[in-house]
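User:
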Amino acid sequence: MKRRSWLAVMALSLSSLVTVPAWAQAEAPDAMVKRLSNEVLSIIKTDPAVRDGDMSRIVSLVDSKIMPNVNFERLTTYTVGQYWTQATPEQRKQLQDEFKTLLLRTYSGALGEVKDQTLSFKPFRARPEDTEVVVRSEVRSANSQPVQLDYRLEKAATGWKIYDINVLGVWLGENYRTRFRQEASAKGVDGLIAWLVQQNKNMAGK
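Assistant: Predicted structure:
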């Protein structure tokens, strides 16, 4: 019994030495977006390939830093609308994968247009009980127009998740909602998937 108690004390003492970042404990939505955005912009400023406009590197950067914090199922469900319920599990996966690629390239393209970036955030307003919020920001450069990047977030069990992104004044989910439903209405879910695949091929070729 004494041995178990001693081991428990040792374990507690060791655990107290482990430093857990404050944002990992309970990170506010605006703090999360600021952290992620600053991490991305810091890499953009110091990575020669990114500074030279290497889109594959920019895409990889955004994919590793931003996209894990996006609720793609909610965004895709909202955008596809009633046709989501008609899709098979395999089709749903294809829709999410292709839509993620489309969003990834759109977001990366916006960042790729900006050089010598500075990041500013507009005042964040939310109540403690809010479960959905908007964080607004701008990426500025001396030689180009500001790039508006706003984020809609929801409070999930694992923390705050982004579920829509505003690039240059356009919410991506809302922007694609009408077109997705037109494609699905005319050609079915498979037709919508084919359209997404073609859009991603077109963007990859630019």
